[in-house]
Structures are given as structure tokens and as C-alpha cells.
Design goal:
Blueprint lengths: L6 H13 L4 H13 L2 H10 L2 H25 L7 H4 L4 H4 L5 H34 L12
Helix pairs in contact: 1-2, 2-4, 3-4
Keywords: Membrane, Transmembrane, Transmembrane helix
Protein name: Permease
């Protein structure tokens, strides 16, 4: 069942499938079909690349999804997973005892201290050296053709 997700977005679904005791073949088939047979990517490829590339991707995607998942289903031993290992602990055991606003502020500070310097450095580098990466730009602005 290909849907319009990338691999990183489909990974949590695959983890949930495995926690729900689906077979390894079904989980891998879902994960790989989202990447190889993503309808949005196939349509985009049809617009920008020759049609043979789209056909090759679809054919290899079908081999990957059905062939590899079937092979993994045959090779992987099925282990029964105990439900205690799957189920999360009760809610009162998971939540820290600090108030929500303190946890939120701590996360905001950490993200700000990580993102803002990286943003400033990126803007500085693109401002200084961007004209080399983008030929239509000069130090004074955009050139006209």
C-alpha cells in the first residue's frame, strides 16, 4: 500500500506495525513501498525525467516491495513478543513530576541555543559566499541576463 510518505515518516508506522506483531515482510513491504512507489515522486519524475526512468523505478520498486519482503518473510524467524515489553508503562510513571511550563521552557531554551547560532552562521556563509554558489548573484545584487 504505497502512500505519500518518505522513509522517515513511514518508519514510526513500521515500528508500530512490528509492535502490533505484524510480520517482518509486511512491515518491510510497507516501508519500502512508501519510498519506491510514492505516487507524488512518480508523478514528479514523469514531469522532469524521461518516461523510461519512471518505468524502471516502478518495476524495481515492485521487485523490491514484493520480492524482498517475501524473502525476508521466509528468512526471518517469527518470534512471539511478550505484551509487557510492547506496552508502555502507565501514564503516571512516564510523566516527570515537574510542571509542564518548566519542561516546555527547558525544551525551548535547548532548541533556541541549537538553532539560532546555526541559522546565524548559515546566513553569514550564504551572504559571504553565496555569489559563488549562485552565478546570477553578485555582491551588489542580482544581475540581469
Amino acid at each position: 500500500m504505497p502512500s505519500m510518505m518518505c522513509t522517515c515518516c513511514a518508519a514510526p508506522v513500521v515500528v508500530g506495525m512490528r509492535k502490533s506483531q505484524s510480520s517482518i515482510g509486511a512491515a518491510i513491504a510497507y516501508w519500502m513501498s512508501n519510498t519506491a512507489l510514492n505516487p507524488a515522486v512518480l508523478v514528479f519524475m514523469a514531469f522532469v525525467l524521461p518516461l523510461k526512468f519512471v518505468v524502471i523505478r516502478v518495476l524495481l520498486g515492485l521487485v523490491l516491495v514484493f520480492g524482498v519482503s517475501h524473502l525476508l518473510n521466509r528468512l526471518a524467524p517469527e518470534k512471539s513478543v511478550e505484551m509487557e515489553k510492547i506496552l508502555p508503562p502507565p501514564r503516571e510513571q512516564r510523566l516527570p513530576q515537574t510542571p509542564f511550563i518548566h519542561r516546555w521552557w527547558k525544551q525551548l531554551k535547548g532548541l533556541t541555543l541549537a538553532i539560532v547560532p546555526a541559522y546565524i552562521i548559515t546566513v553569514f556563509i550564504l551572504g559571504e559566499f553565496g555569489f559563488g554558489c549562485f552565478p546570477r548573484l553578485t555582491r551588489t545584487g542580482v544581475t540581469t541576463p
